[in-house]
Write a structure and sequence with these properties.
34% helix
Amino acid sequence: MVTLFRWLVRLTVGLIVAGAALMALAWYFAVRSLPDYGATYEVAGISAPVEIVRTTEDVPHIFGQDDHDVFFALGLAHAQDRLFQMNVLRRAAQGRLAEIYGEGALPADDLARRLGLYRNARASVEAQTPETLSALRAYADGINSWIQQINLGARGRGAPEFFLFPDNISYWEPADSLAILKLLAATSTQQIRREILRARISLAAPERGQELMAAPGEPPLPTYASLFSGGRFAGAERRTLEADWPTTLAGYLAPSMGAGGSGWAAAADRTAAGGALLANDPQFALTAPGLWYLARIELSSGGVIGGTIPGVPLVLSGRNTELAWGISPAQVDDQDIFIEEVQPGDPDRYRGTEGWTEFATHSETLGVRGKPSRTITLRETANGPILPANYLDIASVLPAGHVAALAWTGGHGDDRSMSALMALMRASDRQAAADALGMLVAPALEVVLADKTGVGRIVAGEMPIRDPASVSKGRLPQPGWIAGNQWLGQEAAPSVAGDLAPPSGIVAVTGAPISGEPLLGFDRGNHFRQDRLQHLLDSREVHSRDSFIAAQNDIVSPVARSILPLVGADLWFTGEPAPMGTPERQRQDALALLANWDGTLSEHLPEPLIHAAWMGALQDRILRDELGPLADELTELYPDFLDRVFRDTNGAAVWCDIRQSTPVETCTQIARQALDEALLELTARFGPDLESWRWGDMHQARHVHPALGDLRGLSYLVNIVQPTSGGNSTIAHAGVLGYGRNPYLNVTGAAYRGVYDLADPDSSVFIISTGQSGHPLSRHYDDMSELWRRGEYVRMSLDPELARAAAAGITHLEPPGR
């Protein structure tokens, strides 16, 4: 027995020692991939020495002999800090995620191949301007130089993720950066998703379904079923919505995920310091590391500083010495779904405008980690590529014997969008910027501009030219064999006279339509954020940098201010006071809190949580009776719809009556029942004391690491979780997940914020949502996340002496033999 005990002790000690040794070894290899920001590297591909000066926040300031060397160094700096992210973004665009992630990434790869993101990117390389092509090649050379340094110096494969997701990293090519820009364009638009949802709602509620998604003043639509006489549809089925959010973010970006943003500017005569001001906050899914990376590059045209996306040699939002610019996805209607009839008995042919026509087809092979490769056949019609039937539940709107094709303005290879954005960085004034953006195709952007003489705004990018005979005007999937439905071509988005010199000296965009402007689409952003932003800008005659920062961090919900008085109009302070501890008393207490609330979605208050739960339960009760299982998927709040219902616009109050019950329910009754349901749910989570509830207990920003964020144990190291204020409709956008165990998780937001002050340019500020480094063991992995959460910033300066004075390290790049 003593001998057995001794051996057990020895075995236990041995296992502990072995485990500790393995952990030490893993730590050693992981730390090896942390870059030394004070090192000197001899690299081929530059003509003279280059300096990369890193500030205390790890923001690189790059100084070189010429533009080629500067873009080379930008590529190297991006690769030092974000190599895994860059490789994943490239793979997402190429349709090669399953090669490292396994079978779960196959649907994303399948879609990327069918959209032809990488194929079209390669075709567009030679379409770029000479200056852009030179920058792309230099940038690729810089990335490849760092990959060589990793191999030569045994630098832990460049990122710790590569130990868990082994990958033979191929050298970077100019087409890779163009493909990431294509992926960004496909991510920014949600038109496919909107069209499919409209069709599903029309099938479920043909009589009044359009009221749910209709924009104010939108002309009526035909019912979807009427477009396909005799067509048989599968109909809505109950689906499980517990989608795995990290899987959704496997490639950081994904087609139809959606993006947003805000931008506004004030001319010099509307500012306290006598110089133009501009603010911008592009909004994407929150990841760790975030999508954005701060950088300054010193070009022959002058210094440029702002937000970049690793993998792309562009400052997408920022300023140079003369001009500031901010971008927001324009939410134009740049995609249409065409329903194509397959010839009975011959799956290789479809019905064209002049009869049965052969699909254009070719095959591609998808690699799968640990599994045999898969071969897929890609088909295309005159309208565009055929989409997978399981994508966004397209199958539910397909008549039997039909497939869906996609027409998209970004779905071709003759695309100089990279050159347009490259020229924007070098523009010296608003007119030069507008001229440069004339080349933009996709993503379509609303660009706010400011220079020393004024401010302006343009919508840049291309839109389809639709035949006036089109039956749905792009709002519903429509028959592809009818010539009047097909696109007549593409053209630049319409401009508005005076946009480059508004008389008010103020411009503001949030992706929502603006009164009096040309129609850019029916599924644009809601007007509530636009109205709130315009109110804040109009409420002051003179603005300052601080007032712009305050607006950028504004957390007042215009939806709550508009909808709550309407929904609760017949509930406020009605009835006798109920006894303590009863459901009636809890309802009265909740209504009393909401009646005195100003709509501020602070993480420290209970009212935002009560409001969100109430409106969610209310909309679900109203819709479920009409839409059945489809109601499970309508996780977004439709405030204009609720407004129409509670105002009984065109008889919309009929939605409140439950068809399956004998009594005729009123909207007041439904509102009361929904509030009780919401309070029961919240009480089960947090107890009966309403005033102890906090919005931030549920509304937490979850910055997910796409590769490691769902792995038990590692998720605590790599994911960044923090309570946040704001919501879907606040200017400080903090979008919620909408489903699952915690539907209030904050999963989208302004992952980059910048405020540019042309009166005192070096007082301009910016921030990103996580940190500069993508390495989980780096102190710069999350060092900006708490500043971002609190609405704070770091200084944006083009002064080289300031950069060097606060340098945390200076990387020197030397040409060979020097």
